[in-house]
Amino acid sequence: MEEAEHICVYSGSAHPELSLQIANYLGIGLGKVHLTHFPDGEYFVQFEENVRRADAFLIQPTCKPPNDNLMELLIMIDAARRASAARITAVLPYFGYARQDRKDKPRVPITAKLVANLITEAGADRIITMDLHSQQIQGFFDIPMDHLYARPVLIPHLKKLVGSDGVVVAPDSGSAKMAMSYGDLLEAGFAVVTKRRINATTVASSHLVGEVKDKICVITDDLTSTAGTLCAAAKILKANGAAKIYAAVSHCMLSESGKEKLLATPEIEQLVTTDAVPIVDDLGGRIKVISVAPLLGEAIRRIHEGKSVSSLFYIKH
Ligand code: R5P
Question: Is the pTM of this model over 0.85?
Answer without folding.
Answer: yes
